[in-house]
Design a protein that fits this description.
Distance between the termini: 79 Å
Strand order of the largest sheet: 2-1-3-5-6-7
Shape: elongated
Structural class: alpha/beta
Radius of gyration: 24 Å
Oligomer: single chain
Helix content: 40-55%
Largest sheet: 6 strands, mixed
Order of helices and strands: HHEHEHEHHHHEHEHHEHHEHHE
Number of helices: 15
Number of strands: 8
Strand content: 5-15%
Length: 364
């Protein structure tokens, strides 16, 4: 009986030790490979394999080596970092949030500034971000907060995660050693998409009714808060050159915001944000919303907003040349021109698509 008890105790002891060793081994493997870069930049000759911004962006900003930020929403993702590195002699990294809300992007910039000296910030201003709430949305949208906070105890959700162990790490290894993964194409999604007129029209659901144009100041409270957030970043970092730009959304987007009655409010928000930012010497702002050859060519788009990487490259080339730049002397004229162009879209350029019954309407 005693021998049986002794054997049972030895078995239980060995089982506990084995389980503890396995737990330690799993945690160690995740820590060493660290596919979300929560603890360190890549080791063992692994590449910077970036394809999941909600899980990886925050870690890369904390641990990677860089001196330039590419900041924005999903329309910023299809940039090749190498374009900026070669043009400006920098080492760039993307600070991306799908929604592109000002508060979220400022949060990412703050994380970057914690341990990095930043030479340039290239910041894509989405019109909708100016009227969004000036509060971060990471927690409310279900982001993995154990990667964002600095609490080591909830890291168990990462260290002992079967998806990380059996999916993320193998994917990282395969792309590093077996594939031809290009590190400059971080978070790039264009490879799997089609950009043409059928896609753009097929994903545009036109509002049925044309709503009376709303007062241009309807978003003023949120706008003022967002201006405060962004100007604080600029003021706090005079050593950084900020390059802001309004991206080239398609004519379909302008048609949509005209019909919802928001067009004048968006233009007003852009004017106010532009005026506020241009008070600072370390700011330049470009507007690509008034380029007919781009915006009216629906072969450049996959929906009303998202354009091909060629348009990302075109906007960068134009910034390098100083084209479409706004100053305190011309910004009102430029944005009034955008408004006039949107009128032409609504009254002339969209008409052939209506006449040929090529537009899909929202369901009431």
């Amino acid at each position: 009986m005693d021998n049986t008890k002794m054997s049972s105790k030895k078995f239980i002891k060995k089982l506990i030790i084995t389980v503890l060793v396995l737990i330690f081994a799993v945690g160690a493997v995740v820590y060493i490979f660290d596919p979300f870069y929560h603890y360190h930049k890549p080791w063992l000759g692994l590449k910077e394999v970036l394809n999941d911004k909600e899980y990886q962006c925050i870690g890369t900003l904390r641990h990677f080596d860089y001196d330039t930020l590419l900041v924005g929403s999903s329309v910023m993702e299809n940039n090749d970092n190498a374009w900026y590195d070669e043009a400006y002699g920098v080492k760039s990294i993307k600070a991306i949030r799908s929604y592109g809300a000002t508060a979220d992007l400022c949060y990412l910039m703050d994380e970057a500034y914690e341990n990095h000296d930043i030479k340039y910030v290239f910041y894509n201003i989405d019109p909708s971000s100016l009227s969004a709430d000036a509060e971060t949305t990471y927690e409310s949208t279900g982001c993995p907060m154990y990667l964002y906070d600095h609490n080591p105890f909830n890291d168990v959700q990462y260290l002992f995660n079967k998806d990380v162990l059996f999916e993320k790490i193998p994917y990282m290894i395969a792309n590093s050693y077996l594939g031809d993964y290009d590190e400059g194409l971080s978070y790039n999604w264009a490879k799997w998409k089609t950009f043409d007129i059928q896609m753009a029209l097929g994903l545009y659901y036109r509002p049925i009714d044309v709503v009376e144009m709303q007062d241009e100041t309807i978003y003023n409270d949120k706008l003022v808060a967002n201006i405060a957030l962004l100007t604080k970043e600029v003021a706090d970092h005079p050593e950084t050159q900020f390059m802001f730009f309004y991206p080239a959304y398609s004519m379909l987007w302008w048609d949509g915001v005209y019909r919802t009655g928001e067009r004048d409010a968006y233009i007003y928000c852009e004017k106010e944000m532009t005026k506020a930012l241009l008070q600072y010497d370390n700011v330049r702002i470009f507007c690509f919303q008034n380029e007919p050859d781009v915006i009216t060519n629906l072969y450049n788009y996959m929906d009303s907003i998202h354009f091909s990487p060629e348009i990302n490259k075109l906007m960068l080339d134009q910034m390098i040349k100083g084209e479409y730049e706004m100053t305190l002397d011309n910004y009102e004229e430029v944005l009034d021109g955008v408004k006039e162009f949107s009128d032409k879209i609504v009254n002339e350029l969209i008409v052939p698509y209506e006449e040929q019954d090529m537009l899909t309407y929202e369901i009431r």
